[in-house]
Specification:
- The protein contains seven helices and no strands.
- The longest helix is centred in the middle third of the chain and has 17 residues.
- The two termini are 29 Å apart.
Length: 122
């Protein structure tokens, strides 16, 4: 029934993650209070899922980090006018642990900063 109503919007792993977040008492089921609490927070859960999917799109080698080369491969056709130095600057601006790559939390901060500057719509 879930798949009929929502289609392929969520992968099974997404659903498991959502249930874990909603199941506050950890008993493996969602009671009415947990459901109501989740319903009020559903938008943030959907945003988290969308952010993870976007991050996974950039993380081509699936190692949990986005490199400059991965940024260039994904964004190259979209922002073809960017040069190597501009990609370096983009990573440097959001790479808080200074490892030369963007992890998921850094990616989240980058997206939030861009959405606040009205460059993208969340």
């Amino acid at each position: 029934m879930f798949k009929e109503r929502f289609g392929e919007m969520f992968r099974p792993t997404d659903i498991e993650e959502i249930v874990k977040k909603i199941d506050i008492d950890g008993d493996g089921s969602i009671d009415w209070k947990e459901f109501i609490a989740a319903a009020t927070d559903l938008r943030s859960i959907a945003k988290e899922t969308t952010l993870r999917q976007a991050f996974d799109l950039f993380d081509i080698d699936k190692n949990g980090e986005i490199t400059k080369k991965e940024l260039q491969r994904v964004l190259g056709g979209v922002v073809g006018e960017y040069n190597d130095n501009q990609f370096d600057e983009l990573i440097k601006e959001y790479d808080k642990n200074n490892d030369g790559q963007i992890n998921f939390e850094e990616f989240r901060q980058m997206i939030m900063a861009l959405s606040k500057s009205k460059k993208i719509e969340m």
